[in-house]
Design brief:
By secondary structure, this protein is an all-alpha fold. Helices cover 79% and strands 0% of the residues. The longest helix has 44 residues.
Amino acid sequence: MKPSFAEALRVWLKVGVLGFGGPAGQIALLHREVVERRAWFDEARFQHALSFCLLLPGPEAQQLATYLGWLLHGVRGGLAAGLLFVLPGFAVIVALSAAYVTIGDVPDAQAVMLGVKAAVVGILLQALIRVASRSLTGWPVAAVAGVAFVAMTLFAAPFPLVVIAAGLLGFVLAPRGAQTEAAAPVKWGPTLVTVLVWTAVWLVPLVGIGLLFGAQSSLAEMGGFFSRLAAFSFGGAYAALAYAKDAAVNVFGWLDADQMLDGLGLAETTPGPLILVLVYVGFVGGWNTAPAGLSWLWAGTGALVAGWAIFAPSFLWIFAGAPHVERLRASARLSGALRFVGAAVVGVIASLGVWFCGRLLIGEEGALEIPAAALTAIGLLATFGLRWGVLRTLTLCAAAGWAWGRLGLA
């Protein structure tokens, strides 16, 4: 049943507030809320939308939320879902950035962060089990998932290459049939209007920042750089962050390497996309490069510039592309391509889980991190033993991490 707009708003806000765990955890949360609990979408419709979003630059989980909101209530639904997905995390990362530049650290933050990360392990594993059980419906797609996992885990294959290869294979192997290839005629006039409007929404404010503060200012540099990054940030958040780190530290000098590493740690404690770390970069970079007496203005504007440049393009991609993707749902070739992309997603989630657990549980000298392992066990018990939801599990693990830190063990 199609929900009311008010009911959908409550769910999008819930997802934005509880969206920890990176894209895998966020996609799992979306799936649980709109497919399993409320049946707003069936599995095929959800996977179709997800597969399209994985082919786009930018934060795929936010784009998926935007797509789902658009399917329910048009443009206003897409705007609501996409904005509510980002705004809670944006507010948190700005607050943490302000605390960072003024007092240098947040009391007990590291211990709480450890608990949150430990809870994410269970969320990731639960997401992997659920997505695999629905996506791997035959040996061809299972084989694609396995190859994707090996390619990314052992050979560090680029994410876009893995997804594109899976999609092409599915396209080639899809069964032919005239009756399934029919699709509604494509109307390019409305698409052109959508592209022009949302390109203006994206770029005009950033041009205005350059005119207001000067084309050579750090704020204008941020607008240009983050816009380029948004347009070409294929490969997930970590691929984009590798490029952003080098540019912010070595090219533009907005902040130093230690500040960048601190930002990555802070971003992992916030809900929403990990790419929100770029809001921290904009805030701290603005603070560091501000003229005398304008630190807060420069920092706040830098955060807004980064957030706008990174997330506004997502609405352009979805509102311009989703109508055509929906018209092609009947295409056997497109369905085959997206089915194999969905299978590759299983391998990607598994690879992400291995990478995340390795960082969390194994120390620099190859030894097991006992506090992290103990907190992870608590999170797994809450998720699979007690069958707790995301909020209760995160709260428990964060509190356990804080207590562990107070005892001097974390």
